[in-house]
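Internal tracking record. Fields below are filled automatically when a chain is submitted to the structure queue. Please do not edit lines marked as system-generated. If the sequence contains nonstandard residues, flag them in the REMARKS field before resubmitting.
Queue: standard
Priority: normal
Entity type: single polypeptide chain
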Amino acid sequence: MNLNVRKMVNRMDLVELTRSLVTYLVSDKEKVEINLIEEESVKVVQILVSEEDMASVIGRGGSIANAIRTIVQAAAYTNKLGSVRVNIDTL
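SYSTEM-GENERATED OUTPUT FOLLOWS
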């Protein structure tokens, strides 16, 4: 991992980290919503994008979605934020 990315992850919260990843992928940046829902034992990062941008966020075979999940979960683990799930859906 690039040193600059490491510094960014340490300074950003999960919502802003997720927003920066997702807005880079979509064509309609205005139609991106990122919410953090705190449940009993887990935090849920909810990603909402337009129907047209869903394929860009999911990727072929779910590869981009899995990469987003991995990065967000690694940031949560590094910052001792506990268990995190990432859900992706349309607006």
